Amino acid sequence: MGDHMIEPRFFLSMMMLLPEELVHDIFSYVACRSEPRIHCEPPELQFEHNSLGIRSLSLVNRRWRRISMPFLFSSLRINVLIDVKKLRDQRSLFSKYTKTLILRMLSLLDKEGMEILLHSLPHLKRLVRVDVGSELTITLLNALHEHSSVSTILVASIPKEATQSDLSKVILLQSKLIDPSHSRLAPMMARGMEVFQLLIHHPELISHQFGSQTFNGLCELDLLMSYLPVTVSWLPEFTAAHPNLKKIRFIYGRKDFFSRYTLPFISLFVEEARSRQLADAYSITRLSITRSFSTQEWRVTGLTIIVRSSVIEILSLLSSFFPEIQTLSLKFEGRPTRGLTYHIDDAIAILHLFSSLEILALHCLFKRLHFGNRKPWHALARVGNTGQFEPSAADITEAGLLWYTLRIAQRIPSLQAFEIHEEAYYDEEFCCGGRWFVKGWLHVQNAPSGGREVVGTLKKT
Fold first, then answer.
1. How is 105-169 classified by DSSP, letter by letter?
2. What is the rounded distance in angstroms from the CA atom of residue 196 to the CA atom of residue 172?
3. Which CDD domains match (predicted)?
4. Tens of pLDDT along 143-183?
5. Which of 177, 336, 342, 409 has its CA 20 to 30 A from that of 101?
């Protein structure tokens, strides 16, 4: 069919002819969508239940309605009283299909709403996972533990009274450790609680003895660096004691930290960059390492880097030392000057070397890229502008970003999303008149025509 788009009606008619097991597989794919895990540094993707997409498919015909039911009701999100009443009024459907319960803003529920929730829980016969993203009460915790089919309770916090409760099903999503020598989690972990992510402030205070501490179920470790050097001599013993630990992030906002106090994971890169007189061209502010469970080796998979010059040289060097980067955040400093802009094809050729790249964050890149004298996005900006006036600088930048990111996505098959942040003064020449911003997330997906497309809406101010 070449580059022609497939008509939606033709696509639906083809779907109608598929065997039921293939339709089921397609619905399973539609039921999950990738969303940015924005609290994570660098940002990553996680999969969320796509109720809107499944709901649309369920309205096509009776056959699709029947196939969609397990997906449509597999996840239930409760925010306010009306959601609790929906759970009560459609109990038979939720009892038959619901496997995940997401609880938010429980403090807004009155006594009646909480009673309805507690009374409805035993009727959810297939419930396996409960995600409590708000304040958890001891009453609700005990009710969830008594539920026979629930195996996992994800919580944002633990009530103080829980130190005397059974916590064998509980996973604390994130815990902050201010003093590495003392953990307040010990009493709760002794009752079976696990911790998914641990944030350690002042990791320079970590002694070698810290390596012998254990945190049940730990999967991610964040080290929030200060201005003092950090030793990682405790890491081998610590990682050996935590078989589920898959990701460690070193996070610090100061631009000179990783060059002054080089960590072993990037030392060879730093030395090579220094030997090529590139030490002043960049600053690394965040570093993520991931463990391969097959080899047990740690490799760099995420970087946030501020680039001041020599973008092509820096990226080329990064790709040679860290070919398995999955998340790359590029931030550009200062105003672009003549001779410091880059052709889009040269930038794509370098980015193409990162064959595992999934998330690409671009901060203030747009004015540093060019595509010769032709600027097709200007026409796109005029088409998308519904006002009576000429498109603004933000409109043109948004159109250009959509055009550029599509070209990048077409060359990097592994890419799943862009995080975009562009800003400039209204009066660029004199750096005054206030600032405008274009920012947000763009997702990459396969187009019905067989190509790639970039979708999403950027915020403009």
1. -GGG--HHHHHHHHHHGGG-TT--EEEE-SPPPHHHHHHHHH-SS--EEEES---GGGGGS--TT
2. 6
3. F-box_SF
4. 999 999 999 999 988 888 887 888 999 999 999 988 777 77
5. 177
